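Chapter review: from sequence to fold.
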Amino acid sequence: MDKKNLKLQIADHVMEYKENYYRLAYSYVRNPHDALDIIQDSIAKALASRETLKNPDTIKTWFYRIVINTALDLLRKQKREVAAAGEILTHYDSGALDRYQDIDLEAAIQELPAQYRSIIILRFFEDLKLEEIAEILNENINTVKTRLYNSLAKLRITMED
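The token string follows.
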């Protein structure tokens, strides 16, 4: 497939599944502006490295992986930055974005280690098959199954408390 057609195929795919990718990015950063930045950066990275896509049929898992890596990069970058003073943050926080349908579950998922949180999000919020998750995370299918089982057990314990 030539580069122009692949570029168009990537663009069409991202437009078709943009809500899924945004939801995935948002699940990592919990901020709509950062989630949009992640999607924008992911699109740029995908277009710049489109030659690494060996099989156009795997574009979905390929782009999910780019979004996850970009989100993790942003989170690492934010950890290195110095946080502003609490009173400044409180002053500017309207609380408008803090409405969750199930705040306990949301908090429990956010407390999971990244490797477990990724599997929960991809499986239950993105409704991906375990095989797709294994491909996205570049892990063995049995590792994904084990981590899914462990993460569900951790969530159960947290939710029971």
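Two observations follow directly from the output. The chain has two domains: 1-99, 100-161. The chain has a mean pLDDT of 83.
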